Amino acid sequence: MYKLVLMRHGESQWNLENRFTGWTDVDLTETGRQQAKQAGDLLKENGFEFDLAFASVLKRAIRTLWIALDSMDAMHTPIGLSWRLNERHYGALQGLNKAETAQKYGEDQVLIWRRAYAIAPDPVAEDDPRNPRFDARYARVPADELPRTECLQDTVARVVPFWDESIAPAIRSGRRVLVTAHGNSLRALIKHLDGISDEDIVHLNIPTGQPLVYELDENLRPIRHYYLGDQEAIAAQMQAVANQGKAQ
Ligand code: DG2
Q1: Among 1, 130, 160, 194, which has the highest number of CB atoms less than 10 A from its own CB?
Q2: Residue nearest to atom 8 of ligand 1 (CA)
Q3: Is the CB of 183 under 6 A from ligand 1?
Q4: Active-site entry in 45, 76, 87, 100
Q5: Which long-range contacts (CB under 8 A, 24 or more apart) does 94-97 make?
């Protein structure tokens, strides 16, 4: 049996401000840093060790990983970064407040933009500074793979190849792997791992800074999964994520 740990980054500045973030490279808040430290402490207390870690190329995920590894006294752990683990690109919504957007367009519309599997928000314009083509870190990504908006289906389409080509082979070779990423890039990966339907994935919300352990069989099929931390607090955090799209 293999174990894989998935973790959404700690609270970011735009999580705190309740703004659609996507590929915007915002940093952690002080709370987010504490969550990352607590996650590392929890992993250490529960005897977890890692041979390899992966993160997106966004600093909220990278810093969460650094802080967690530091608190585990495991900063020697090799890290692989990939744009394929980035948050879903939120298109023209990036930067807008989620509750204000719900007041303007209605909660149902915001729920569609946040959770519909195959409906993407409007894209940012070709010359919009939020277009990733202006960001040097994506210079080597083929232009036709760089999104200007995404729905979860699009995110699945670029996360799964990274699972197949990088994460799964590492696990099969016996390495113990930690993946630090984002609400929606992890929803994409979990949908793939657990075979969750397009309808049911709508209801999955992932809390910030909580290690999620997957036990996998020899074919990397999930046997079971569980969050390591306080179950009541995690349930409350998941509900809070769901509520972020309410008009208030
Ligand atoms: C959030 C997820 O991403 O938002 O892009 O706003 O995980 O990087 O904080 P993260 C964003 P929702 O889809 O839950 O609204």
Answers
A1: 130
A2: 182
A3: yes
A4: 87
A5: 94/20, 94/21, 94/22, 94/23, 94/24, 94/124, 94/130, 95/19, 95/20, 95/24, 95/130, 96/19, 96/20, 97/17, 97/18, 97/19
Q: What is d(CA 231, CA 225) in angstroms, rounded to the nearest whole number?
A: 13
Q: Annotated catalytic residue: which of 9, 49, 165, 218?
A: 9
pLDDT digits (tens, 9 = 90+) for 135-188: 999 999 999 999 999 999 999 999 999 999 999 999 999 999 999 999 999 999
- Residues marked as binding for substrate? 8-15, 21-22, 60, 87-90, 98, 114-115, 183-184
Q: Is 203 marked active-site?
A: no
Rounded to the nearest whole angstrom, what is the distance from the C-alpha of residue 133 to the centroid of ligand 1? 21
pLDDT surpasses 90 at 81: yes
Nearest to 155 by CA among 112, 103, 203, 191: 191
- Domains of the chain are 2-243 (3.40.50.1240)
Assess whether 232 carries a catalytic annotation: no
Interval between CA 20 and ligand 1 midpoint (Å)? 6
- Locate the ligand 1 atom nearest the alpha carbon of residue 98 and give its number: 15
C-alpha to C-alpha distance for 195 and 156, rounded to whole angstroms: 12
Q: Which amino acid is at 232?
A: E
Residue type, 112: I
Here the ipTM equals 0.96
